[in-house]
Amino acid sequence: MKANCWAGPDSVEVRDVPEPALLNSRDAIVRVTSTAICGSDLHLLDGYVPTMQDGDVLGHEFMGEVVETGPGMTDGKLRPGDRVVVPFPIACGACASCRAELYSCCENTNPNAGLAEKFFGHPTAGIYGYSHLTGGFAGGQAQYARVVLADVNALKIESDLTDEQVLFLSDILPTGYMGAEMCDIQEGDVVAVWGAGPVGQFAMDSARVLGAERVIAIDKETYRLEMAAAEGYTTIDFEDVDVRSALLELTGGRGPDKCVDAVGLEATHGATHVRLYDRAKQAVRSETGRPHALRQAITSCRSGGIVSVVGVYGGLLDKFPAGAWMNRSLTLRAGQCHVHRYMKQLLRLIEQRRIDPTRVITHRLPLSEAPRGYELFKNKEDGCEKVVLTP
Amino acid sequence: MTTDTSAPTALRHDPLVRGLGLASALLGVPQVATPGGFVRQLGLADGPRQRMATVAVGVRELTAAAGLLGRPHPAWLWSRVGGDLVDLTLLATALRRHDGRGVARTAAATAGTAAVTAADVYAAVTRTRWRTPVELTAATTVAKHPDETYELWSGLERLPEFMAHLAEVRITGPRTSHWTASAPFGRTVEWDAETTQDVPGQLIAWRSAQGAVVGNSGEVRFHPAPGGHGTEVQVTLRYSLPAGPLGRAVARYFGEEPHQQLDDDLRRFKQIAEAGEVIRSEGAPGGKRARAEFPQHPAQPLTEDELREVRS
């Protein structure tokens, strides 16, 4: 079958690979009908995530039709022919973390947990197509994919919603939603979102659904800011203005009540010297992320506010404004999305037309053109916001 | 946590070790103080090169003396063996290029050094601990009742599913079992074990029978976790590692880290207890062999041949 594989930093290739087989008794094999390129796939492409190997099949946003189930799938929850969306973190559903609905911190699904523990202190869940640090699971940018512990890790779609309407339940919609939910939004809140990529857009939509009075989008790509403005959000272009000053101006000097970092470790900064400083430190690996967005969020947020982080960080940061965080009683919340926790309620919001996930799709390509999709997305060419691939 | 209990304190009162330390001191002092006189005593031509070599050897002897008398450790004895070999090489070179005057004294010095070498080798070999007792502990919490968790372990026959090194455990009697494990360099080790304590829901302890190649014992304790969060499983393993620290270094080079191994074993026990089986990925399809598989299989589906190997 055809699959999009990592072929070294800055290189992905569509290759012929074997079709997936059952490895565990509660596996299912899915014929992928739609898959997408995620912003976090770009961290893999750019070589910022360790333990990638040549030939790793990429992709953790996918959905499709069940074609085979393992002998352990005896409860009849999932049958060949079922249409499913697959959450990107693999959960066992039985450990203490899963019972607490912290699915992305599942204690059992990462065969390389010992390695992950070295990086993070405690292991985290397995993730499809996301390095060997998260288990070495083959991804879903392929014609077929293996779903692990499929009775826990597949959401059946029984309505006639299109693939494009439900595909993003696999990652970016719940991730954006969790970014807003962690903000504990109260009536009258002003919520600022760093990053107007797909996750940022969904964090904004979610903030509005959860009752924010005003939502502010911060980015430098005009087309992304326009996409946010079209939804009625206020925009700040950080190439034109100083973000903190602009935020203070928009909030009567208070600063936003809640801030969402939907950027992560490859941020850019409006000021060249600041950008170069972190770029250089990252290049020599004396920090693993460029935390411009996080720093700005912490220094801009009103005292006692909440900074919620859904942008991906992998290692160590430099110049973390701990003083601002501590002295101004800020709450910092973070997490890889616990997708399973949100899928059903978000599916309902889609059915009720309160959120339209399709609004971020700008490019539809066949799987065979995945490398071009990565290029468009990475270089933000042709107004690229979200690429959906069809095998 | 790994505990190494090889204690060098016994060497402090060892007459042979102390004797060799004193010999080093007695040799080192004249070599450093009057190198010219020492060179002549050996029946060699006195020159700046010879003196420099003598001072260097003297400093080395004084260092060994300080080590052996001050902080005795087998490593000092091995350093003496190394020094002896250097001395023998120097003397042999001197003999080959000898001008004849005083050659008898040089030959006698060479014979003396050879005798000392023999004593040093004897001391180093006999004073090095070739087996290091090791105690490993590890713990995990399983979201199951202590009784269920105990049941899963007490059958013993499922241990090879999650313990990387165990190939097979066969029950041979009411309290006895036969264990087969893989060892470094593709070898297999087998031994008989006896269950010494068995308290349902709480504790299992075992000990290898007399004559096991790697004598070992261990215990698993099952405690209810606080707040009704299941069971805390605490494992202690004791065994004597062949070839001491050297063996451990070699084993580590070949990817055997005992403590990490035990942590991984327990992680897989937790997987079986909670998720029903050991989780396999395309990158680590061998399940319990995951750590040994780096660099791993790429995270892409396996070929028919690879699948057959994994399933065998």
Automatic annotation (TrEMBL), chain A:
<protein>
    <submittedName>
        <fullName>Glutathione-dependent formaldehyde dehydrogenase</fullName>
    </submittedName>
</protein>
<feature type="domain" description="Alcohol dehydrogenase-like N-terminal">
    <location>
        <begin position="26"/>
        <end position="147"/>
    </location>
</feature>
<dbReference type="InterPro" id="IPR013154">
    <property type="entry name" value="ADH-like_N"/>
</dbReference>
<dbReference type="Pfam" id="PF08240">
    <property type="entry name" value="ADH_N"/>
</dbReference>
<dbReference type="InterPro" id="IPR013149">
    <property type="entry name" value="ADH-like_C"/>
</dbReference>
<keyword id="KW-0479">Metal-binding</keyword>
<dbReference type="GO" id="GO:0046872">
    <property type="term" value="F:metal ion binding"/>
</dbReference>
<dbReference type="InterPro" id="IPR011032">
    <property type="entry name" value="GroES-like_sf"/>
</dbReference>
<feature type="domain" description="Alcohol dehydrogenase-like C-terminal">
    <location>
        <begin position="198"/>
        <end position="268"/>
    </location>
</feature>
<dbReference type="Pfam" id="PF00107">
    <property type="entry name" value="ADH_zinc_N"/>
</dbReference>
<dbReference type="InterPro" id="IPR036291">
    <property type="entry name" value="NAD(P)-bd_dom_sf"/>
</dbReference>
<keyword id="KW-0862">Zinc</keyword>
Automatic annotation (TrEMBL), chain B:
<dbReference type="InterPro" id="IPR005031">
    <property type="entry name" value="COQ10_START"/>
</dbReference>
<feature type="region of interest" description="Disordered">
    <location>
        <begin position="277"/>
        <end position="312"/>
    </location>
</feature>
<dbReference type="Pfam" id="PF03364">
    <property type="entry name" value="Polyketide_cyc"/>
</dbReference>
<feature type="compositionally biased region" description="Acidic residues">
    <location>
        <begin position="303"/>
        <end position="312"/>
    </location>
</feature>
<dbReference type="InterPro" id="IPR047137">
    <property type="entry name" value="ORF3"/>
</dbReference>
<dbReference type="InterPro" id="IPR023393">
    <property type="entry name" value="START-like_dom_sf"/>
</dbReference>
<protein>
    <recommendedName>
        <fullName>Coenzyme Q-binding protein COQ10 START domain-containing protein</fullName>
    </recommendedName>
</protein>
<feature type="domain" description="Coenzyme Q-binding protein COQ10 START">
    <location>
        <begin position="144"/>
        <end position="266"/>
    </location>
</feature>
